[in-house]
Design goal:
mainly alpha, 7 helices, about 65% helix, elongated
Amino acid sequence: MSTTTNPDSTEHSPKQSEKQLDRLRDKLGDAEFINDPELTERVRQWEKRSFELPAGDVEEHIESQITDLKASGYAMFAREGLEDATDEFPDACSKCPHYGGGCPIATQRVVRQEVSRIVTQAETDSAFRREMRSLAEDYRCHRIPEWLSEWSNRYTEIIQEGLELQREIDKQIQSMASKGAQKRVDLRADDDENGGHR
């Protein structure tokens, strides 16, 4: 369970993270009101990356990781007649006790159904991660915690970067407003020096 105190990285469900990204995209539209091409380009690049995030939720991310394993030619179980069954597993799985035997995460339907159940019932991202880590411990899988971290960090990093861009834009807009107010004061001072109103 997370004990983070950073107000910018609160615990969110996958849907809440998507909504926060949507809100940030809207707010970063204020970049059109500033005259800073470099900052405007950074906002455009951030928007592009924010739309390129794979997998809308953790379940999809984990499913895509498992699918990628199989698409890369790994059966994730020992097939009959193989001289070295570890050839059916990626090197990243070598720490697993199922390495060279059979991966329950990739090959057992009941495990995939359990993942779906957790997604349906977990009310927050932290609850989902807690239950998924418990499932990984039950099946002695070290890849699931890695995939959860990848997914979590992906949202955390892009959201924090968006918040920082928003702060920079707000600062520039405030600076523009402040300079405008100062300019008006200066003009009035000039008028006073020239004998008052025209």
